[in-house]
Design goal:
Radius of gyration: 15 Å
Helix content: 40-55%
CATH topology: Protein-Tyrosine Phosphatase, Chain A
Strand content: 15-25%
Organism: Limnofasciculus baicalensis BBK-W-15
Oligomer: single chain
Pfam families: DUF488 (PF04343)
Largest sheet: 5 strands, parallel
Structural class: alpha/beta
Number of strands: 5
Number of domains: 1
Distance between the termini: 27 Å
Protein name: DUF488 domain-containing protein
Strand order of the largest sheet: 3-2-4-1-5
Length: about 150
């Protein structure tokens, strides 16, 4: 039997820096896996790539990884935003994308254990980080998902 993987997810919007970093450290997260397509935007605030990497290390000794293969394409994002946020279409297109990318073959279970998938959405309900976590659970079967 495969060892259980503890996988967390978090979004940074509607959280203060204090809430965000305390949630990660109090949960025992070992690394943050950034699943955003654009992690350098000024809108990212304290989660702008280089700042986030620094803060994670300094505050919680948490590693940082950016994985574009876990992010949607710009085309999928644009269609979602321009089509009145049709979640069902977005979800279908994104799931097809990660299946085509065969992410379950490209990311190590060891990297995911104790990791936290990061994106901007405040909740996991309409967010690709949840889709990634659930897809990997369906592929591997040994993941415990915790949305922070």
């Amino acid at each position: 039997m495969n060892k259980q993987i503890d996988l967390f997810t978090i979004g940074f919007t509607k959280k203060s820096a204090q809430q965000f970093f305390e949630t990660l450290t109090n949960s025992g997260v070992k690394r943050v896996i950034d699943t955003r397509l654009n992690n350098v935007s000024q809108l990212a605030g304290f989660t702008k790539r280089t700042d986030l990497e620094y803060f994670l290390h300094q505050i919680g000794k948490i590693d940082y990884i950016h994985r574009l293969d876990l992010a949607p394409t710009q085309d999928i994002l644009d269609k979602y935003k321009k089509n009145g946020k049709d979640w069902e279409t977005y979800e279908e297109q994104f799931l097809q994308l990660i299946q085509q990318r065969q992410i379950e073959e490209k990311i190590s279970p060891d990297i995911l254990d104790g990791a936290c998938l990061l994106c901007s959405e405040p909740t996991p309900h309409h967010c690709h980080r949840r889709l990634v976590a659930e897809y990997l659970l369906n592929q591997w079967g040994n993941i415990k998902i915790c949305h922070l």
